[in-house]
Design a protein that fits this description.
The protein is an alpha+beta fold. It has two domains: about 150 residues, Jelly Rolls; about 40 residues. It has four helices and ten strands. Strands 1-2-9-4-7 form a five-stranded antiparallel sheet, with no helix packed on it. Strands 6-5-8-3-10 form a five-stranded antiparallel sheet. Strand 5 and strand 6 form a beta hairpin. Helix 3 packs across helix 4. The longest helix is centred in the first third of the chain and has 18 residues. It is globular, with a radius of gyration of 20 Å. It starts with a helix and ends with a helix. It binds 2-acetamido-2-deoxy-beta-D-glucopyranose (NAG) (3 copies).
Length: about 220
């Protein structure tokens, strides 16, 4: 019985380890045809005779992103399959994050990817939290890298006196992002106040205060 359990556990770990990534490609390229109106896992392919270098090119992370959220003071600029159709089925993407003074990229997860950051400039306090609620954190500086394992809560905060930015790499064409504060307090329709009050052990007035502060 114990042996069967162990085998099942190993199989489960194996399955998660091996299959927890974007699907393998079955051809050279499958440039996303976002006008097709067909919904599949990923995007259908453009006619290969119609593809060009532009399908594989993006200049959008060459320059700092414009920071418009003054509470958080950070801006994420994606470079994923929504920006680069040639990434469809390739299982990788990037992003750039720019930080205002004391700017924060707030706690969030990427359901489909591990993330590796490279500090372009400045100094950041970064961390992730394991499923045992252990915080793994570090101050990282220009030229240094840090890894946020797939699906775990993580954040980055600008600490330095200098302009701060990171480049992020992901093992998914579209890693997806879910910010905890936004997901819980600004969803449409609302998560009921009593659910949040009970979850955070606060009263519903405080739930409404948090909601108001975020929207
Ligand atoms: C792909 O494009 C080529 C060139 O325009 C065309 O000859 C061919 O019929 C197209 N294939 C399909 C399946 O539409
Ligand atoms: C963070 O970066 C901005 C520029 O994006 C810079 O002006 C600011 O001084 C930095 N913040 C801190 C706390 O050093
Ligand atoms: C590196 C890796 O884990 N690759 C796997 C990704 O997922 C596909 C199935 O979708 C596997 O075939 C790969 O081995």
């Amino acid at each position: 019985m114990a042996a069967t359990g162990a085998v099942l556990l190993v199989l489960l770990a194996f399955t998660i380890g091996v299959f927890a990534n974007d699907s393998d490609m079955l051809q050279d390229v499958c440039v996303a045809d976002r006008e097709s109106g067909i919904f599949v896992n990923g995007f259908p392919c453009k006619n290969i005779s119609m593809i060009t270098a532009e399908d594989f090119f993006f200049a959008g992370i060459a320059q700092p992103g414009k920071i418009t959220n003054n509470i958080l003071g950070s801006k994420v600029t994606g470079a994923n399959v929504q920006d680069i159709p040639g990434l469809n089925t390739l299982g990788v993407s990037m992003a750039r994050v720019d930080f205002a003074p004391y700017g924060l990229n707030p706690p969030h997860i990427h359901p489909r990817a591990t993330e590796m950051i490279f500090v372009l400039k400045g100094e950041l306090y970064v961390g992730f939290i394991t499923t045992n609620n252990k915080l793994i954190s570090k101050v990282v500086k220009i030229g240094e890298t840090f890894v946020f394992p797939r699906g775990l809560a993580h954040f980055q905060k600008n600490l330095s006196k200098y302009p701060t930015a990171v480049i992020a790499a992901f093992n998914s064409q579209l890693p997806g992002t879910q910010q905890f504060a936004a997901a819980l307090f600004t969803s449409k329709p609302d998560v009921p106040n009593d659910i949040l009050a009970q979850a955070f052990n606060i009263n519903t007035k405080k739930v409404e205060m948090i909601r108001a502060g975020l929207s």
